[in-house]
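lol ok so funny story. i was supposed to be doing the assay writeup but got distracted and ended up predicting the structure for this chain instead. priorities right. anyway since i did it might as well share w the group, maybe its usefull for someone
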Amino acid sequence: MFTLLELPYAPDALAPVISADTLSYHHGKHLRTYVTNLNAALPGSGFEDSSLEEIVVRSEGGIRNNAGQVLNHNLYFTQLGAPQAGRRPAGALLAAMERDFGSFEAFREAFTKVAVGLFGSGWAWLAADAQGNLRITQEANAGNPVQKGLIPLLTFDVWEHAYYLDWQNRRADHVAALWDLVDWKVIEKRFESR
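and the output, tada:
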């Protein structure tokens, strides 16, 4: 059985980019529902002792959708921190970005384009392969790069429930503001432990 992720920060810690109201709905209602639905679907499924990643890769239908949303949201919420302009990655992750995208700025521009350009609901991802090569993917609905054999590092949730209370239909503005919340130390650790 899976449990609702405990947030590593106060409900208002991400404001004004993500308000306490949005966080309450997004984490407290949306993510809680995915956890509840996944747990209800597990008995007799053959996935009772599987990790979220295994379920996302090997299952189908409602189990995969709910497991995917739990995994995606857990990665999303744990990569965020209090707003701080000008945050940048460092170390091996920055070197890989410079190698694979030309610069951090070029990576950020390409990632932003993917996040803003996703039609409908879904996720923009920075992922790595086993050799540490980086790529940006666009995943609809509950999709996750693990389904492609990749290691998820960074994600922006572009489902409307992630931003609509604060930003209405201004997805591009929300995505631009999210960069100030990314805790690059978390992303660097994910990259280094792949």
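The chain has two domains: 20-78, 91-192. Residues 91-192 form a domain with the minor pseudopilin epsh fold fold (CATH 3.55.40.20).
back to the writeup now i swear
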